[in-house]
Amino acid sequence: MDLARNPRPGGKPQGHAQSGGHQRRDHAYRLFDSRRTRHFQRRFADSPMKHLKVRQAINYAINRDGLASQLVGGESKPLQVACYPGQFGCDTTAATVYNYDPAKAKALLAEAGYPNGFETEIFAYRDRDYVEAIIGNLRAVGINAKLRYLKYAAMRDQQRGGKVPMSFQAWGSFSILDTSASAGTWFKGNPDDNIKDPQVQGWLQTADNALDPQVRKDNYRKALQRISEQAYWAPLFNYSMNYAYVSDLNFKPYPDELPRFVLSSWK
Fold first, then answer.
1. Of the ranges 29-38, 135-144, 171-180, which is most confident?
2. Nearest Cα to 1, choosing from 23, 25, 22?
3. Which PANTHER family has this protein been placed in (predicted)?
């Protein structure tokens, strides 16, 4: 095997015998940033999530650094903003920073009227081990979340029907380096927008349709700032795209997860 995408962490694919001999090829193991991001989404109606302090508490309760470094690994980094940092218009300085702080999360829950926490459901369709780690974080501050693990289509239908209080999802932005493909997809009033904030929708509409780059940046910043301040989401981390390939292959990975085999060559 000359190249493998996302081999098991710590593992390498088996090399094959070279022509005329029995020596195995050495494999270089490389970790690269991926623009696929993970986030935690909430629905507000008739649930504790309608309280801002509860949403903030959830953000403080999650150990993003631990998820990125211990579970995802590689080039994964924690996120605080509802877009991929490499995308046009993704201003990371617009984010309210929710560092891991269980004590603060508990205090916010008490201020919101939930001193003993509450029970809820969390829906997911992939990366069960990541979800279970988050469930542990939430349980530590008093939020007992029962996992509903479904196929994506089933979860999506329930989410669009307003039946999902919390969900754990990934988004690859169609491999497009523009915030219109991230925040613009989830907060602009389309079927996957559970928030329906008219201010955010207006800013995103302006940013998505403007031709002036500065107008786009300014409006994306306003939208991202409000999404973060209101804790509409809990952005978590970006993925790490891992490759293992033979040492005599010229191969350059890209963060959009699309390998350019046509640009590869043998040394």
1. 135-144
2. 25
3. NICKEL-BINDING PERIPLASMIC PROTEIN, PERIPLASMIC BINDING COMPONENT OF ABC TRANSPORTER
| Helices assigned H by DSSP within 93-170 | 102-111, 128-140, 152-160
> Residue 41's pLDDT is what?
61
- CATH code of the domain in which 115 resides: 3.10.105.10
Task: Look at residue 28 in the predicted model and tell me its pLDDT.
Answer: 40
| Strand-pair partners of 151 | none
Output the six-digit token pair for 14.
Answer: 């088996």
pLDDT, mean of residues 40-61: 84
Can you tell me the distance from the alpha carbon of 189 to that of 167, in angstroms, rounded to the nearest whole number?
18
Total domain count, the chain? 1
Dihedral sign of CA atoms 200, 205, 207, 208 in order: positive
Tell me what pLDDT residue 47 has: 84
On the 0-12 / 13-18 / 19+ scale of CB atoms within 10 A, 27 is buried
The edge-to-edge listing of strands for the beta sheet with 166-171 is 3-5, 233-246, 27-42, 166-171, 118-124, 143-149
Say what the pLDDT of residue 12 is.
46
pTM above 0.85, yes or no: no
Taking alpha carbons only, the member of 134, 131, 174, 173 closest to residue 150 is 131
